Amino acid sequence: MLDKAPNGKVTELLATLDQALSAGDIERALDLFQTDCYWRDLVTFTWNIKTMEGKDQVRGMLEARLADTKPAKWKIADGEDSSEADGLIESWIQFETAVARGFGHLRLKDGRIWTLLTTMVELKGFEEPKGFDRPMGAKHGADRNRKTWKEEREQEAAELGITKQPYCLIIGGGQGGIALAARLRQLSVPTLVIEKNERPGDSWRKRYKSLCLHDPVWYDHLPYLPFPANWPVFSPKDKIGDWLEMYTKVMELNYWSSTTCKTASYDEAAGEWTVVVERDGQEITLKPKQLVLATGMSAKPNMPTFEGMALFKGDQHHSSQHPGPDAYKGKKAVVIGSNNSAHDICAALWEAAGDVTMVQRSSTHIVKSDSLMEIGLGPLYSEQAVQSGMTTEKADLIFASLPYKILHEFQIPIYNAIRERDADFYKRLEAAGFMLDFGDDGSGLFMKYLRRGSGYYIDVGASELVANGSIKLKSGVDVQRLTENAVILTDGTELPADLVVYATGYGSMNGWAAELISKEVADKVGKCWGLGSNTRKDPGPWEGEQRNMWKPTQQPGLWFHGGNLHQSRHYSQFLSLQLKARMEGIPTPVYGLQQVHHLG
Amino acid sequence: MLDKAPNGKVTELLATLDQALSAGDIERALDLFQTDCYWRDLVTFTWNIKTMEGKDQVRGMLEARLADTKPAKWKIADGEDSSEADGLIESWIQFETAVARGFGHLRLKDGRIWTLLTTMVELKGFEEPKGFDRPMGAKHGADRNRKTWKEEREQEAAELGITKQPYCLIIGGGQGGIALAARLRQLSVPTLVIEKNERPGDSWRKRYKSLCLHDPVWYDHLPYLPFPANWPVFSPKDKIGDWLEMYTKVMELNYWSSTTCKTASYDEAAGEWTVVVERDGQEITLKPKQLVLATGMSAKPNMPTFEGMALFKGDQHHSSQHPGPDAYKGKKAVVIGSNNSAHDICAALWEAAGDVTMVQRSSTHIVKSDSLMEIGLGPLYSEQAVQSGMTTEKADLIFASLPYKILHEFQIPIYNAIRERDADFYKRLEAAGFMLDFGDDGSGLFMKYLRRGSGYYIDVGASELVANGSIKLKSGVDVQRLTENAVILTDGTELPADLVVYATGYGSMNGWAAELISKEVADKVGKCWGLGSNTRKDPGPWEGEQRNMWKPTQQPGLWFHGGNLHQSRHYSQFLSLQLKARMEGIPTPVYGLQQVHHLG
C-alpha cells in the first residue's frame, strides 16, 4: 500500500513556503530550510544557473529576487507522489513565477529542506507547440496566398542570414549546437547554426575510425527525438553522425555547413554582434543579437611544444587529427598521453599490428565501461531504469538536483564499489606500471569530468592491452625532446618512432572566443568549465557551477553551450529559455553573475 | 477502486481454454465460444491472416492446426487488467505456441468468447535485439580483425545484390517497403528495397504541391521510431518525404534508389526468383527467395479512354502525374472524378485563380477532417488518447480485434454522429448538386477504404469551394468525348478546357505483378484489396480479410505489402515474421490460403 504520509508533509511544507514567499517573509521561508541546505536554480529565480549554498546565500538571493519573481502555486507535481527512505523525503514539485512555469525537486531532512531544485519549464505565453498544441501542418480551408511547407522552408533558407538576420547565431554544429538549435526553433527564435565541416555529424565521422560513444544510449538522447529501442548501447561514430545529420533535417534547423567564422565583434550600444563568416568561399556578414559558441569541449587542441619537433621526420599530430591506424600497420608509434584518446588510439594502433608505446606523464583514472554503466549510471540511465519507469527528463533532473558541492560524496561510494568489483583488473594495471587514480578525493570519473573534463579513460579494452604489455608503457616520465626518428624521454629512454600522437587534450572553450572575437573578450569571460574545486586542473575559488556554461557570461550577448550529450540535451532547455526571454523583451535580471578568476 | 472481478472471469476462462486445447478437446474449447463468434488470427495458428467466423470455422481451423501449434500459457497479459462495460468483458491476453510468443485481445459476451484476436509477437529464438537485447555497438576488447560499423555497412552495401543475394527483395520504397524492410533488418533477414525514384520519400515529394497526409500523426507512426511530439498533425508531403529518407538511413536499410524492375520469374524447384533490375542504367540480376510488391495502393493509375483524347490540344494527365497549379494560373481546368485527388487538385487550381469544373460521375463520401479525427479516430489515435495511456501498439491491436464482418456495425453510429454534427455542411453540399453517400450501408469512410480503397474525400477545405460554387460542379454525368479544346459531357454540356485531369483512381496491385512478372502470375494471385462485401466495387464472395495483403498468396514466394501508414506499420510486423520463419526453415503450413475469385 503506497504510503501517503510523505505527501502530507511535503504539501504542508510547500504551503508554508508558498505563504511565506508570497508575503515576502524571507526569514519565515528560511525557517523551512536546513542550515546545511542547497538551492539550485535553473533560471526561474536567478535568470542564471546558480546554486545557493547555505541559508545566507539563499537569503541573499531571495532579498534580491523574490519580489520580482513572484513565485506561487507550489505543490507536489501533478501525478507524482513523495517518497520517504533512510530519513529523507523526496518529492517532485511544481510552481509558477510571474512569467514562467517551473518544475523541481525537493529533499527534506528532518522535515526541513536539504536540497531544492527549481527549473524553468516554459515561459507563459511562449509554450512550445507540441502535444495538444502541435502544429496542424495542413492548412485547412482555401487560401489563394497559400505557401506550402516546402515553399516556406525554401523562403526561410533563402532569407535567413541574407536578408533577415537570425536572432541567435550558433557557432559549431555538433550535438551541442544542434540540440540548442532544435529547442530554439520550437520556441520560434530565428536561429542559424554554422559548422565548418561539410555535413552535420562530420565532427564525429572525421574522428579515428574505431571511435564509438563512451556514454551509453540512455544517457545520449537528443531533445524531442530519443534513439529507438534497437539503437546500439554505444553508437559507432558514423552511426551517430548519421543520426545528427537526419536530426538536423527533420528538426528543420537552419544549418550552414562548410562555413567558418572569421571575426566577431559586439556593438554594446546596438546590442548586436557583427559576425563575418565564410560560406562555401563567400564572405557573409551576420548581425545576430546573441552569439553562442558551441565549438565543443574537445575542440581547441592543446598542442605541446617539445624541443626537436621540427626535426622529427615521421608523422606527428594531435589526437584530434589522428586518422586511425590504417597508414601505420606494423609501424612504431609513440603516443604522448594516457587518457581517453590515448587509450583508444593505442589500442587501434596495436590492432593494426603496430609497435606502440604509451607515454604516461601523470596518473589517469580508469573505469571499465561495464562497471560505469551498471554501477555509475544504472539507476538513472539504463534499460533497467527505463523499464522501472525512469524517464530521461526525470533522470536529468535527479542528476541536476545533486548539489555540486556535495556531489563527490555521492560518487565516492560508487567508485569504492567499482574499485572492489574490478580489484584484480586494477592490480594488474598497476603491476604493469600504470599510474592510477580515482580523482583527488576518490570521487571518480564524473567528478573528474566536471572539474577538468579530462584525466580518465572509460575502458573498452585498451587497459587489458596495457596490463598484458601489448601496449608498451612508460609512466612517470615526460618528453624531453624529439630527434629525426625517435622520442627521447626525461628518463633518457629513446623510443624509435614512425608516428608520434600528442593525445594531450584540449584547451578551454574561451580559446575560441580569443580566436574568433578577441583576446580581450576571451579574458573578459575567462576560463570555461570546472567547478573551482581546488583539485588538480580545477583551481579555486569555489564556483559551485560550471564556469560560463549555459548561462550569462561577463560578455553581454555571448554564451557557451556544450558538454556531453546529456548536458547538451538538458542544458539546451535552459539556455534556449534564457535566449527566448531576451528576444521577447521579458526582463532577465541576472542574479549572481559569475566572476572571472582564471583566464583559461 | 479498480474492479478485479473481470480478471477472475477471464483468468478462469483462459485456464479452461488452455486445458481444453492442451488436451486436444476441441469441443470443450468451442463451448467457451459464443455461437456468433469471431477468431482473428495473425499468423500464430494459421500462418495466415485469417478470421474464423462462427463455431464451425473455428472448429475447422483447430482440427487442422491445433496439434501442430501447441498453444499454451494463456493468461491475462502481464501488467494488464480486464475491464467490464455494457455487458462486455475485454482483456489483453498473452499465450505461447511451439515456436512463438503471442499477444491478443478478448471480448466476452455473457461469459463466452465473442471476439478473439491472436497475434504473433515474436519467434522464439529469433527475438528482435532491442531494449535489454539491443546491440552493444562498440566492440569491447581488442580485435586485430576488427571491422568498424562503417566498414561493415560499406561491405554489406557492396555485396548485397551483387555477390550475396538478399533473402527478400521488396519492390517499392515508399512507406510500405520501408516499414517492412526495417522490421526485416531487425530480424536479420537480408533484404533489399528497390525504388524507381532518386531518393526515399520521392513518392511523396513528387505529388502535387499542396498535398499533406490525410491521416493525423498518431495514426501514421512508422515502426520503432514514432514522430516526435512536435510533429504536425498532417505532415506536408515534403516533410514526410524527409522523414522517410532519414528513416531509411538510420534504420540501416539496404535501399537502391533510381532502380526499376524489368522482369521477374519464379523457379518453383529452386524456390527462388530471378529478378532483373536496372540500377542507374546498369542491369543487375537478383535471386531472392521471397519477392514483395510494395508498389502502393495508389500506384497503378487507372487511365480512362475517352473518344477524342488524341484530339485534345491542352494538357491532360492522370491525377498521379499532376504537378500542381503553378502552370495553370487563370486557366480553364476540368477534373474528371470527385474523390480525394480530384478535390485536392480542384482546390489548388482554384487557389491559383483557375476556372475549375469537377465532373462527378458517381457519388462520393465526404467527411470533414476534424470530424474524422475527433469522432472517427479520436478514441484510438489522438493526443487525448495518448494522454490517457493509449499506445500505438494497443490502438493497432484494438482496431485489429474488430472483425471485418461486423466492423461496419461499429462504424455506422460514428458516421451517424458525423452526419448530425455536420448536417448543415452536407445540406449545403447537396444543395450545390453534389452526390453524397456514406457508403452502401452508411458505414462511412473506413469501410469504403477497406472495401474499395476509394470513393471518398477527407475534406480539408475543397468541399466549401464546391458548396459555394467556387469550384464548379457537374454531377451525375460522364465524359462523352473530348474535342480540341473542350470536354463534352453525356448531358451535352461543353466545358472549354486548357487542362483535363483524370482523377480516376488506381488499379489493383496485381496489375504490377502482370507488368513485372507475368499475366499468368497476376491472374494466379488475383485481385488485391477488398473484403468481398458485395458492395460497390467490392464484389463477393465474402473474403473476411483484405485480398492478398500481408499474407501468403496463390503464388509461392510472392507477397503484397502496403496500405495506409497504419497498415504499413502494423502489418509489417506479421509479414516480417512470416518471412523470417521461412528463412529459418520453421514449418509454416498455411491454413485457409485464400482462393481467387476476381482477377483485378
From TrEMBL, chains A, B:
Molecular function per GO:
flavin adenine dinucleotide binding; monooxygenase activity
Q: Domain of life here?
A: Bacteria
Record keywords, A-Z: Oxidoreductase
Gene3D superfamilies hit by this protein: 3.10.450.50, FAD/NAD(P)-binding domain
**What is this protein's name?**
Putative flavoprotein involved in K+ transport
The organism encoding this protein is Rhodopseudomonas palustris (strain BisB18)
